[in-house]
Amino acid sequence: MAGGSNGVRALKSKELFPAIFSRHAAAYERRLDQIMARGEARGRQRVIELVDARAGMAVLDVACGPGTLSRRLAALVAPGGQVVGIDLAHGMVEIARSAAIPNARFEVMDMEELSFPVASFDAAACGHGLQFSPHLDRALHEVRRVLRNGSTFAASVPVTPLRDSVSALLDPVIDRWLPPAPRAVDQDATRQTVADADALSSAALAAGFESSRVEVVEERVVWESADQLVSLCSSWWDCAARLEGVDAGRRRRFIEAATEALRRGHPGAIETTGRNHVLFAVA
């Protein structure tokens, strides 16, 4: 592990993200299940719509996490179809497997090095995962390789974090009470590409897709209270990483301070907004 400036830990993406997401998989699942159930995860929902999974299809769920999209896709490919979910975070895969989702199986696998043969799938989906790939070109090329000609790939990436609308209240508290978040040293190129709709579309074409487009999908999430938002903040990878190693007393004081700061600005329900780029590519 290398040290960065101002005490920031600098790591490679594949050292940093799978470990964090594995340790906080259960909290991540709880938060995502809530916003999916309320219809607020519009970027991910748009991915499901664009994939257009139907009975008998074989669908790959890239960076499947705890199987949130896989569960919905698996219901659509029945009978006779199958969803294969892959993720580099073993903790996420363990949760997905434990759900025993019919028509679905899950593997710990790197999206940049898929082990499937050429033309194995009829469609592929990815909900908020491409941005963690340090070599986006490799990930897109691998997805294209395992898709049959004419198959579709849909992927959503967040380009405005959901908590931006309350960051003026929450971020100063996080910075005051928690250590700096670790930094992935090999993320800049990917983050720049996914944040630019034209660049993301061009990257898919360069990977071998016949056509591609990127939609901008806005999201609105309503949290019932400051207490609820703060209680779930550990499922955001950056906050989760900063909470690790913090002693119980300081953690408690951070939660109290963060909750109080949000209550002052938002005494009732809190609405956060975000924006996603949703890639739709045809192999």
Descriptive account of the structure:
Helix 8 crosses helix 9. This protein starts with a strand and ends with a strand. 45% of the residues are buried. Helix content is 44%, strand content 25%. With 283 residues, the chain is of the alpha/beta class. The protein has a domain at 12-162 and 184-220 and 274-282: Rossmann fold (3-Layer(aba) Sandwich). The strands form two sheets. Strands 5-4-3-6-7-10-9 form a seven-stranded mixed sheet.
Q: How would you state the average pLDDT, rounded? A: 91
Low-confidence regions: 1-5
Quickly count the helices: 12
Main sheet makeup: 7 strands, mixed
CATH architecture of the domain at 12-162 and 184-220 and 274-282: 3-Layer(aba) Sandwich
From the N-terminal CA to the C-terminal CA, the straight-line distance is: 39 Å
Structural class: alpha/beta
- Cα radius of gyration in angstroms: 19 Å
CATH H-tier superfamily of the domain at 12-162 and 184-220 and 274-282: Vaccinia Virus protein VP39
Structural key phrases:
Rossmann fold, disordered N terminus, 10 strands, 12 helices, 283 residues, globular, alpha/beta, 7-stranded mixed sheet, 3-stranded mixed sheet
Break the fold down into its secondary structure elements and pairings.
Layout: E1 2-3, E2 9-11, H1 13-23, H2 25-37, H3 42-51, E3 58-62, H4 68-77, E4 82-87, H5 90-98, E5 104-108, E6 121-127, H6 136-146, E7 147-160, H7 167-177, E8 183-184, H8 188-195, H9 197-206, E9 211-223, H10 226-231, H11 237-243, H12 248-265, E10 270-282
Parallel strand pairs: 2-8, 3-4, 3-6, 4-5, 6-7
Antiparallel strand pairs: 1-2, 7-10, 9-10
Helix pairs in contact: 7-12, 8-9
